[in-house]
Amino acid sequence: MSLQPSSSVAAVAAHVGQTVTLAGWVYHRTEKGKLIFLLFRDGTATIQCVVFKKSVSPETFALAQQLTQEAACRITGSVRADERAPGGFEIDIQELELVGVSSDYPITPKEHGVEFLMEHRHLWVRSARQHALLRVRAEVIAAAQEWLNDRDFVRFDTPILTATAAEGSSNLFATDYFDLGKAYLAQTGQLYVEAGMMSFGRVYCFGPTFRAEKSKTRRHLTEFWMLEPEVAFATHKENLELQEQLVSAIVQRVLERRSGDLRTLERDTAPLERCLAPFPRISYDDALAMIVANQGEVEGASPLTWGEDLGAPHEQLIASKFDRPVFVERYPAAIKAFYMQPDPDRPEVALCADLLAPEGYGEIIGGSQRIHDPDLLEQRIREHGLNLDDYRWYLDLRRYGTVPHSGFGMGVERVVAWITGTRHIRETIPFPRMLYRIYP
Ligand code: 4AD
Ligand code: MG
Fold first, then answer.
1. 226 lines ligand 1 (CB under 6 A)
2. Could you check whether the bond before residue 325 is cis, i.e. omega within 30 degrees of 0?
3. pTM of the entire structure?
4. Ligand nearest to the CA of residue 409, numbered in listed order
């Protein structure tokens, strides 16, 4: 017997009363006299399987007795609907084939500390909770890309090895690049995706981005994935409308398609169901006033003087006043990136916004209208102490058919942490890179 699976666990409902072969791994095994219960997973779902001593050969029963956690096997048996079973179905096993042994699997059903689990991340990704989290991650990514593709956006891939800084020079990872000096791992694809925008009108890049941040918070990774749409002729206002529609669409699709995973994660879905566009907008100035008016509510959210950046506690306080994500717009230009368009009515603030997720998950999107005037852009590059020569190509975009344009970056891990209700971002990516972790 060496059959390819005739079904997947997720599809057994269509095979009630039939015999199927499934290929996968033993999640858990218990023995009760003449009965052995296997909780079996194949990546699509898990199902309870029963081995009756009297229904199988003595060899098969002996094999079932030896199966350990995470042993790989093929099972053949008949599918039975059973209301008491966890997924509504059970399999009565007739035949078993061991494909790969697993001895002393390190992650047992008992409680392990996070450090231990992180050291075993390569195995931890098989656990039910991690599996559900990473499934939601895949759904978020698919939902975002499909939503954009359906609206005439073209995916435009941007380089990871770059010559310049785009989001400040204090958090760059550098590496030697042959005779050309230093190369830096991209902090964003934005500057390059702006070149694509001038070719295609609506584009997005999606890939890993790198920040050598020495911050050891639950919201920071040194390598994270960012989706960055960029739209020609789009104003700041239109930029926010695109963001709220995209975020609502992602959340609603996860609710529709991954409800089982959200249940596994014990996520209260009521706050997600409310997450429909439009989202409220407040100005940076309103945010400062709100912080003063609600002093003492959130630890660390002390009043700020105009020009200071909001910290995580401030974001938490502001978000707690709304029942869905909230935009904080028009920050002081001085604390934002060099490429942001100043508000024509009030040049000390930028036409930008951060989107704050509810329930304390903080900033999930940062975006802005970009400077389209070549002289102003050049001036800003100088003011930020950046080397003009490095940005020659970027300035060219303003010399040849420049147009007002806007875009934003959505951090995938932050969005997944919020949607799944996961406190720490480290579980929302298969292999997190953080200040103190690069293994496995
Ligand atoms: O606000 P940021 O730095 O914006 C940019 O990089 C722009 N160039 C994007 C654009 O306009 N095209 O980052 C955008 C988002 C943040 O809102 C956050 O979700 C995520 O990227 N992010 C991080 N996620 C995890 N770990 C980090 N260290 C992150 N830094 C930013
Ligand atoms: Mg930001």
1. yes
2. no
3. 0.97
4. 1
